[in-house]
Write a structure and sequence with these properties.
Elements (H helix, E strand, L loop, with lengths): L1 H17 L1 H29 L11 E8 L19 H5 L6 E16 L6 E10 L3 H5 L5 E2 L1 H4 L5 E4 L1 H8 L11 E4 L2 E8 L15 E4 L15 H5 L7 E6 L8 H11 L20 E7 L9 H35 L1 H9 L4 H37 L14 H28 L2 H5 L7 H37 L10 E6 L10 H9 L5 E5 L11 E5 L5 E9 L3 H4 L4 E4 L9 E5 H6 L5 H4 L3 E6 L7 E9 L14 E5 L6 E5 L3 H15 L5 E5 H8 L1 H35 L1 H9 L4 H9 L3 H23 L8 H32 L9
Parallel strand pairs: 3-8, 5-7, 14-19, 16-18
Antiparallel strand pairs: 1-9, 1-10, 2-3, 2-9, 4-7, 5-8, 6-7, 11-20, 11-21, 12-20, 13-14, 13-17, 15-18, 16-19, 17-18
Length: 822
């Protein structure tokens, strides 16, 4: 068997070498398309992978809940991918079919680092966990006892990376018993643990672990900052994991969890609007997510990007397959004499089909090998570009499912690319070809190839139009009026705990004295970037209640960001309980005009369950402010005035270069030894919409590749037209046809494909563009947002078709009468 097979492959390879150009075009198009599909598949597999060290991960679940309370605009609350910390002790008493019920949360520790010889203060992410989390998640220990560490409130476990930061090249075992201090409190190192796996749902960025008993005592400013937070049952402030008992099913947990919640002593104290079906209805919905499902949750935008890229790559692959089929048909038609000669020498149809299959398999094999190499090479860069974890393994080796999918793809491409061309070629009668009289594939064959070209042009049109919609929307997002200015503003963010900022008197004096800095202000949020933030319930003197998104700011914050003050004066000072609200908040709190709100005392500090008692006097009202992403509705804003420095600093000056140099100089001279980042407010705005821009860029690249494939299809069609109608065109010239008549006759071949491409591509592009824009609260109007990109895409599609046909139209115009005799 090996002898005939070897001869067949050698003959196929020799034939491909004689047709190098067509082989390279076909293999190159398939390679790029398959590489794009393979890359998206590898990224999706990498992102959906889970920690392999977790015992029986399919039996581990995370408990999730959502309140029945309505969100902004009356929308249903989202699943929080969290559960109340205070609910866990109660669940352990209810006899649920769960074991090792454990909590985890993330907090910050501010530590003095000196391991590299430079003394500095750095905030470290600490995983707060219950002891049962260790066996549940299969956590390992290098030295010491991690379970015992998580049972103490004065102990901490460190990773080797943090040990090196603290004490340099100290042997890890010698770290045990050492003391670390955080803001006047001491903690004993009782365990050294390896870094968490990059695929762990616990997040590999944590550099230490400590007991949950530390929460609310030593960590302030976070979700676990008070006894109420630790005991309450209305906020999702931790992740709660558990293992299903043998025989239990994940589907039976939701009603059991709801019943336990309804029986909790605090349930009756929840607001009535949380209970949608009377007192017998739990105030929240529950679900249990198996661990393998967690990577698919809470990352809607990322999975939208990967899904869109996968769809675009699949469309590109379809276009490349159609192009390969067209090239195969053209080649087999050109090889009619060779085919007839082989058949006259006794070759059967099956033997010819074997030869053609071998030729195509070699082409597909080369394309697949190149695609695998490209995906392996580009995988890490693509993962980094999409913002996936740099530590997460992407393509150390292509995963087995990727290889299986690639092999399956070749088995699909082989019949798809060869069935029609082979059928047309085997239908031809050998005798005319042996006499030198070749025939075409017939009218139905031409129509089918025109139809396939329509699909290629329609696919290119769809991708071009959609990338145009995304480009215009991204430009719109960056130019939105959000109620504040970003030009010539720099933001310095200190890497510290949220409620810990050291004394900055000297630094503040340096900012005041530097000539490049006209205004500066501290805040607890960056309005250009932090599109989420804490909210508090406020009650007006008239009894109106409204949740306000809260930010603590300096009095100079509003002039620094160029916000328009409608009433009052923020510069009156920070005094106790002084508050600035935006116009939207004033309206929702029942004030007829911005001026009517000035001097009003609001009761703030409340949440969804209870009203607060903090007295806050409104000293100013500014124009509507939007700190949220364009995907979310703007919340009413509240700004608490404070003279105390916060962890974010914004500076403004007319000269951007001098402003950056001045800020860096003042920090270097007078700033504390803290890690920090400096970037412009415009960069921060762009970062919020980074994934939208990435999707547009990748889609544009895929669209350009689709354009190239469509141009090849158009080129092949017009070449076939010229070959098929050469005699007819010469006779038309002899009867007085002008250059314009000949060009119009050749171009008429594209009239049907272009029309069909528009009928198919434009509506699909419009629907896809509308679906994309519907994901934004702030979006382009339909006319510029859809009509302009669709029109430009249609014009570009006609242009690329004309460009692909130019060479052959010129050849048609140069035909001589003697050509009619050939």
């Amino acid at each position: 068997m090996s002898g005939p097979l070897t001869l067949l492959l050698r003959e196929a390879w020799a034939g491909l070498r004689q047709r190098r150009a067509a082989t390279l075009v076909s293999a190159g198009g398939l390679m790029l398309a398959q590489a794009a599909c393979l890359l998206v598949a590898v990224l999706a597999l990498s992102r959906s992978a889970i920690d392999p060290g977790v015992p029986a991960p399919e039996r581990v679940v995370m408990l999730d809940f959502r309140p029945h309370a309505k969100g902004e605009g009356g929308a249903e609350s989202d699943w929080q991918l969290a559960a109340p910390v205070g609910l866990v002790p109660w669940l352990k008493t209810r006899g649920l079919p769960l074991e090792q019920i454990s909590r985890s949360s993330s907090e910050g520790f501010t530590l003095q680092m000196s391991g590299d010889g430079l003394s500095r203060v750095e905030v470290v992410r600490v995983l707060i966990a219950d002891p049962d989390l260790v066996p549940l998640m299969g956590l390992k220990t290098l030295h010491g006892d991690l379970v015992a560490t998580l049972s103490r409130k004065d102990a901490i476990a460190l990773t080797p990376k943090l040990v090196r930061k603290l004490w340099g090249d100290l042997p890890l075992a010698q770290a045990l018993g050492r003391i670390v201090e955080c803001r006047g409190k001491s903690y004993t190192v009782t365990a050294v643990i390896p870094a968490l796996d990059s695929r762990s749902t616990l997040d590999a960025a944590h550099e230490a672990m400590a007991s949950f008993e530390l929460a609310g005592v030593d960590f302030r400013g976070g979700l676990l900052d008070s006894p109420e937070a630790l005991e309450g049952i209305h906020k999702g402030n931790a992740q709660v994991y558990a293992r299903l008992r043998p025989g239990a099913d994940v589907q039976q947990l939701a009603p059991l969890l709801a019943a336990a919640y309804r029986a909790h002593p605090l349930h009756d104290k929840l607001p009535a609007e949380w209970k949608t079906a009377g007192p017998e209805q739990a105030a929240v919905d529950f679900r249990a997510l198996p661990l393998p499902q967690l990577p698919l949750e809470g990352q809607d935008l990322l999975w939208t990007v990967l899904t869109a890229l996968g769809a675009a790559s699949g469309l590109l692959l379809l276009l490349a397959a159609i192009n390969t089929m067209n090239l195969q048909a053209a080649q087999l038609l050109q090889r009619q004499r060779e085919t007839a000669l082989r058949r006259s020498l006794g070759a059967s149809g099956g033997q010819l089909l074997q030869l053609w299959c071998a030729e195509l398999l070699i082409t597909l094999g080369l394309a697949a090998a190149g695609a695998a190499l490209l995906a392996w090479w580009l995988g890490p860069a693509a993962a980094d570009w999409l913002g996936l974890s740099a530590q997460r393994p992407v393509v150390d080796a292509l995963p087995a499912p990727a290889w299986q999918g690639l092999l399956l793809l070749q088995l699909v491409l082989l019949p798809l690319s060869l069935a029609l061309p082979a059928t047309l070629a085997l239908r031809q009668v050998p005798a005319p070809a042996l006499q030198g009289r070749t025939v075409s594939e017939g009218p139905w064959g031409r129509r089918l190839r025109q139809g396939l070209l329509s699909l290629q042009l329609g696919g290119a049109l769809l991708l071009l139009a959609l990338s145009g919609v995304m480009a215009l929307q991204h430009r719109h997002l960056l130019q939105l009026d959000r109620g504040f200015e970003t030009r010539n503003r720099l933001v310095l963010s200190a890497l510290v705990e949220r409620d810990f900022v050291p004394k900055l008197d000297a630094f503040v004096d340096g900012l005041r004295q530097h000539p490049a800095i006209l205004h500066f202000a501290f805040s607890t949020a960056r309005p250009a970037m932090d599109h989420w933030g804490p909210s508090e319930l406020h009650v007006s003197p008239g009894g109106a209640k409204q949740m306000l998104r809260m930010t603590t700011v300096s009095p100079s914050y509003f002039v620094t960001y160029g916000m328009k003050v409608l009433a009052g004066a923020p510069e009156q000072g920070s005094g106790e309980g002084r508050l600035v609200i935006d116009a939207k908040a004033a309206r929702l709190l029942g004030f007829a005009t911005p001026q009517a709100a000035i001097g009003a005392v609001l009761r703030g500090g409340g949440d969804q369950v209870k009203e607060g008692q903090e007295q806050r006097r409104v000293v100013a009202v500014v124009h509507d402010i939007k700190q949220e992403s364009a995907r979310d509705a703007a919340q009413p804003q509240g700004f608490v005035l404070s003279d105390a420095p916060q962890w974010d600093l914004t500076v403004y000056g007319p000269d951007a270069r001098a402003l950056r140099a001045g800020l860096e100089e003042v920090w270097r001279t007078h700033g504390p030894p803290l890690g920090h980042l400096i970037w412009s407010a415009e960069e921060q705005t762009a970062l919020v919409y980074r994934q939208e821009e990435q999707l547009r860029q990748v889609l544009s690249v895929v669209a350009l590749l689709a354009v190239g494939v469509a141009m090849l299809g158009a080129y092949a069609l017009v070449a076939d037209t010229l070959r098929r109608r050469r005699t007819e065109l010469v006779l038309r010239r002899l009867h007085g046809a002008s250059h314009a008549d000949i060009a119009a006759e050749v171009a008429r071949e594209f009239r049907g494909p272009l029309l069909l491409a528009g009928i198919l591509g434009l509506p699909l592009a419009g629907l896809a563009g509308m679906a994309y824009l519907d994901g934004f609260v702030d979006r382009l109007a339909p006319l510029p947002g859809l009509a302009v990109p669709l029109s430009l895409a249609a014009l570009l599609t006609v242009s690329i078709t004309a460009l692909a046909a130019v060479r052959h139209i010129r050849l048609a115009l140069s035909l001589q009468p003697v050509e009619a005799l050939r």
